[in-house]
């Protein structure tokens, strides 16, 4: 009797273990239909397909919903009629996350709900089929659902182990996908947009609406440091309150959207990379009394001109440059202290062109030996 019981029990136990075991490596997080219902494209799709995006992690803090993500969310909800809208933008306080750049979306479809899981299966199956052809058309970088992740830049690996995400599908986008500059929306095959560049080490990337195909310009070390701590969208506390007072916005103690916009506007007005964060270049401009180190400390305007003539006459400096030479230039031009940070942008460009106009030089905004000599001549 015992022997017969064991012979029956063993197959049952083995069978139960097989049913409870996790999906094999590379398998999807849920069963996907063989002919999934996909999204209708708003344009005629070209024969070619967009290149697969590499992994482009968050480098900037831009909590604004990007247009390509907004359009996809609306189309997914309309097409499948399931789940909640979820969030696109998040605070910049949760670690590296494309949500902090407005290029990730959480579609609230719970794996335990049959109709929601079916909708998720249709979208996921359609997006990832054929090595992610449709994901490439949408500019999707990766998808996470039910403890598994699929990435267009590792499509051959299939679904890899992840964690969480049982109540929503997380979708992260490339910059082209986030901007809506892909073939699914435009009818033209897009190119890879590598996104913002970090201009000063240790700061966020400078926000821009211009796609980037090439390498970033070099990153400069911080030329000014302060006693103030860096803060970004979502942070709270006395440091944020201090900045709000200096910026003239409501002193809520929370780095909110009004503060984010005020920081961005201040940076644009003072030739600071447009990070929209309270970083060291911004604090040095906003709160001069907090500066603890300065690469041109002790140099008068005349001394900065003399140093520039001796050191930089053999090179050129133009808009977009970041570094010590630009800080000496800003000092030599006699620009206001709030505008001196070592980043050559619109305010510095205007000052250079005024110098060129007064000296009878070509007003191209490029600083060469002639401009340094003109600065020396102006001081007598």
What is the terminal-to-terminal distance? 113 Å
Tell me the major beta sheet.
5 strands, antiparallel
Percent helix: 25-40%
Structural class: alpha+beta
The largest beta-sheet arranges its strands as 1-5-2-3-4
Poorly predicted tracts of residues:
1-23
DSSP helical segment count: 12
Query: What overall geometry do the principal axes of the alpha carbons give?
Result: elongated
Mean pLDDT: 93
How much β-strand is present in the residues? 5-15%
How much is the radius of gyration in Å? 27 Å
- SSE pattern, N- to C-terminal: HHEHEEEEHHEEEHHHEHHHH
Give the beta-strand count.
Answer: 9
InterPro entries: ARB_07466-like_C, Peptidoglycan-bd-like, PGBD-like_sf, PGBDSf
Organism: Aeromicrobium ginsengisoli
Domain Peptidoglycan binding-like: 245-286, 334-375
Pfam family, one: PG_binding_1
Provide the descriptors you would attach to this structure in a database record.
single chain, 380 residues, alpha+beta, Muramoyl-pentapeptide Carboxypeptidase, domain 1, five-stranded antiparallel beta sheet, two-stranded antiparallel ribbon, 12 helices, disordered N terminus, ARB_07466-like_C, PGBDSf, signal, Peptidoglycan-binding protein, Peptidoglycan-bd-like
